[in-house]
Amino acid sequence: MVRKLLRIRNARIFLFGNAVSTLGDSSLWFAMGIWMKELTGSSAWAGLVFFCYIAGNFFSPLGGVLADRFPRRALLVFANLLSAAIVLPIALVHGRGGIWIVYVVIFLYGVSGSVIGAAQTALVPALVPPDLLAEANGAQQTLNQGLQLVTPLIGAGLFTVAGGAVIAEIDAGTFLAAVVSLLLLRMAPAPVLLRMAPARPAAEAAAMVGGTGGTAAGGGPRTVMAGWPPGSGSSGPSRCCGRSCSRSGSAS
Question: Model confidence over 145-183: pLDDT tens digits?
Fold first, then answer.
């Protein structure tokens, strides 16, 4: 079933973008914890990084609301671009005096991540047929969980070699790669729902005919063809007001 899933173009592109984004996510917050330990010498300050990230994830219900209210792909594109902008201020941190920037960024990072996660889950049904939905969700979760096991080690290695600012820039690049993958998806157009115009009330329809009374000259009920102008000669379907319907020129 996984092979059948990977034959679908949208599924391949989506899983690739998701993998790249997850790679940057887990690398960043773990490397930031190491950096705070290095700058402050305090394990408590390092642990505060993880606390800020978890606190941001408490906004997951907000992500679900947004995913229900807005188009999922457009929401994901916006959230990924916003996340790329959020992480860049980390490059401004050059010493202990700027560590507050890291904590603010990591908190906002957690908030945006909760929105991205909810929107990704909501987008999957639009990318694969119903019989492969369970496999698609399973593949997404397996990929995320598997990468989260190895990406902290990658983040630690990158921090040792390049530093925290470079990791933030790399993470911003992974968000841009996710945006590109989203734009490459071929989404089916949303169905257009057509609604029938409601019938006009009898009094309003009679007023449109131009009569001053509620009855015709002969004293009988005036016949009104709702939706069809009198004298138009249209042979289309009609809805009549009153107890009897007749067309002009019919046999008496």
Answer: 888 788 888 888 888 888 888 889 999 999 999 999 999
Three state DSSP letters for the chain: CHHHHHCCHHHHHHHHHHHHHHHHHHHHHHHHHHHHHHHHCCHHHHHHHHHHHHHHHCCHHHHHHHHHHCCHHHHHHHHHHHHHHHHHHHHHCCCHHHHHHHHHHHHHHHHHHHHHHHHHHHHHHHCCCHHHHHHHHHHHHHHHHHHHHHHHHHHHHHHHHHCHHHHHHHHHHHHHHHHHHHHCCCCCCCCCCCCCCCCCCHHHHHHHHCCCCCECCCCCECCEEECCCCCCCCCCCCEEECCCCCCCCCCC
Non-local CB neighbours of 194 within 8 Å, separated by 6+ positions? none
- Can you give the residue range of the structural domain that contains 216? 202-241
Residue 252 lies in a domain: no
How confident is the model over 24-76, as pLDDT tens digits?
Answer: 777 888 889 999 999 998 999 999 999 999 998 898 888 889 989 999 999 99
Residues 75 and 10 in one domain: yes
Instruction: Identify whether residues 14 and 80 lie together within a single domain.
Output: yes
Asked if residue 197 is part of any domain, the answer here is: no
C-alpha–C-alpha distance, residues 98 and 170, integer Å: 20
In this prediction the pTM is 0.70
How many structural domains compose the chain? 2
Distance CA 154, CA 30 (A): 9
Residue 158 inside a domain? The answer is: yes
CB 228 within 8 A of CB 236: yes
- CB of 91 within 8 A of CB of 37? no
